[in-house]
Amino acid sequence: MGLCNMHCPMRHQLIQRLNQAFSLKELLSAVQDTKNTTSGPDNICYEMFKHVSTQSLEVMLQLFNKIWFTGKITPSWLHSIIIPIPKPNKPSHFPSSYRPISLSSNVCKLFEKMVVCRLNWFLKYHNICLADRLPTAPLKNRSYVPCP
Q1: How many CB atoms lie within 10 A of CB 79?
Q2: What pLDDT, in 10s, does the model give residues 92-109?
Q3: Quick one: how many helices (H) and strands (E) in the chain?
Q4: pLDDT tens, residue by residue, 106-127
Q5: Local structure of residue 103 (DSSP, 8 states)
Q6: What is this structure's pTM?
Q7: Quick check: 64 and 58 in contact, CB under 8 A?
Q8: Phi and psi of 103, rounded to 5°?
Q9: 7, 30, 58, 72: most buried by Cβ count inside 10 Å?
Q10: Which alpha helices (DSSP H) does the chain contain, by range?
């Protein structure tokens, strides 16, 4: 049964579970799921999160939950550094001879991982499938909820 077809009280309970504060367990899971990639404009790499104290992670969690409840994202997270990488054996004077690499905030990407994980859990747990909005085949390094 889809979320829209449920009676109001049950739908309200499900939405409450979806909108609850993120837990330290969710943050730790997102941190463990990262690979050591290049940092973005804030110069914070994922490896830093793997070595900070629980108290520091709690502070980060407070920030994430504030963003989750207010919907106000840190403005610096909206900026990326775009680096053109030349394609092999292509003439350098054509823009199409380059592929762009976008370096964005790893703090923001960590928060995004938590949101995606929460949404995927919610859809899977409640057997909600948005078939018209999901890929038909898994994309490399992308999370999705397969349709039954």
Answers
A1: 13
A2: 999 999 999 999 999 999
A3: 5, 2
A4: 999 999 999 999 888 888 877 7
A5: E
A6: 0.73
A7: no
A8: -100, 110
A9: 30
A10: 8-19, 24-32, 46-51, 54-70, 106-125
